[in-house]
């Protein structure tokens, strides 16, 4: 009986930490030191500001909240994504051929460097390899 309970707990803890482990492996695979530092900070900010809706592993929430992981909408326009992080989004969008129409609130309190860190994180894990997103790039996106 104790063995069964121990096995069950091991399965639960392993499954709960798999997204974090995969993210950590992705971050550790970033060669450039500054990009890795931004991604580490971005991971914390993502967990604080984004993961409630988009989930820790970036898979979204069924047909209600779009995924960020392997999302064509996100990958097609980095500046648009950075703008949406700050300003939010209203209206319908199509992500990976699925329509979403749930408003996303903006994060007006995030600074350009924080948005750059979140952007660096989401664009360099989950199989992505974009590189560093700078605060200057964020400012460019916000001023379009």
UniProtKB/TrEMBL annotation:
Protein name per UniProt: Cytochrome c domain-containing protein
Keyword Heme: yes
UniProt keyword Kinase, yes or no: no
Residues annotated as domain Cytochrome c: 37-126
Matches recorded under PANTHER family: ALCOHOL DEHYDROGENASE CYTOCHROME C SUBUNIT, BLL4482 PROTEIN-RELATED
Residues spanning the signal sequence: 1-19
UniProt superkingdom: Bacteria
InterPro entries: Cyt_c-like_dom, Cyt_c-like_dom_sf, Cytochrome_c-type_DH
Keywords in alphabetical order: Heme, Iron, Metal-binding, Signal
Species name: Cyclobacterium qasimii
Matching Pfam families: Cytochrom_C (PF00034)
GO terms assigned for molecular function: electron transfer activity; heme binding; metal ion binding
């Amino acid at each position: 009986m104790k063995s069964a309970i121990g096995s069950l707990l091991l399965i639960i803890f392993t499954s709960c930490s798999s997204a974090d482990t995969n993210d950590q492996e992705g971050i550790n695979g970033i060669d450039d030191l500054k990009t890795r530092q931004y991604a580490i900070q971005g991971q914390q900010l993502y967990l604080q500001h984004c993961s409630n809706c988009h989930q820790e592993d970036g898979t979204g929430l069924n047909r209600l909240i779009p995924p960020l992981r392997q999302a064509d909408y996100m990958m097609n326009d980095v500046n648009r994504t950075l703008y949406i992080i700050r300003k939010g989004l209203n209206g319908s969008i199509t992500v990976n051929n699925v329509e979403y129409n749930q408003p996303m609130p903006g994060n007006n309190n995030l600074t350009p460097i924080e948005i750059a860190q979140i952007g660096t994180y989401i664009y360099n894990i989950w199989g992505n390899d974009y590189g560093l997103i700078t605060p200057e790039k964020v400012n460019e996106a916000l001023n379009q």
